[in-house]
Write a structure and sequence with these properties.
The chain has helices at about 5-10, 15-30, 30-50, 60-90, 95-115, 125-150. The chain has about 150 residues and is mainly α. It has a domain at about 15-60.
Length: about 150
């Protein structure tokens, strides 16, 4: 079985420099660094336009209205996103009684699997339990074939 857990194995190969830059910007890059770069670029562009006289900012009231609208929009957006998350989580999560019964059933099936596999302790990973149960099943199948043929 191939081990594909490393990040390098999961990344598609990039052919050209623009593809590598695009991949870094969209997937691999540090989001804080990208946001800082974009903010600094916009700030410097505005500063250059303002100093050159092409876009002078004489009326601060319009800037106040723009920022107030953005802040109000962010509050609304955050409220909607949190509400949707709560709705989705409430559908996924169950009542405490249902969770307790699910946990006890999981423990019971783990103990049953340990008894079936003649293990002294429960398996820590599901793959360990499954591989042990498969090896028992294949050994019992092959021994029953030998008995029926012989």
């Amino acid at each position: 079985m191939l081990d594909t857990t490393s990040e390098e194995a999961a990344k598609p190969p990039s052919e050209s420099a623009t593809d590598r830059i695009k991949q870094w910007l969209l997937l691999d890059g540090d989001r804080s660094a990208i946001a800082a770069f974009v903010a600094i670029a916009f700030g410097l562009t505005y500063l250059a336009l303002s100093v050159s006289g092409l876009a002078p900012l004489t009326d601060m009231q319009s800037l106040f209205y723009a920022f107030s609208g953005m802040i109000a929009g962010n509050f609304t957006l955050i409220t909607v996103v949190v509400s949707i998350n709560q709705l989705l989580l409430s559908r996924e999560l169950q009542s405490p009684g249902e969770l307790e019964s699910e946990i006890s059933e999981t423990r019971k099936s783990s103990a049953d699997g340990s008894r079936t596999a003649d293990a002294t302790s429960a398996f820590r990973a599901p793959t360990q339990a499954m591989s042990r149960l498969v090896s028992i099943a294949t050994s019992s199948t092959s021994s029953s074939l030998i008995v029926s043929v012989g």
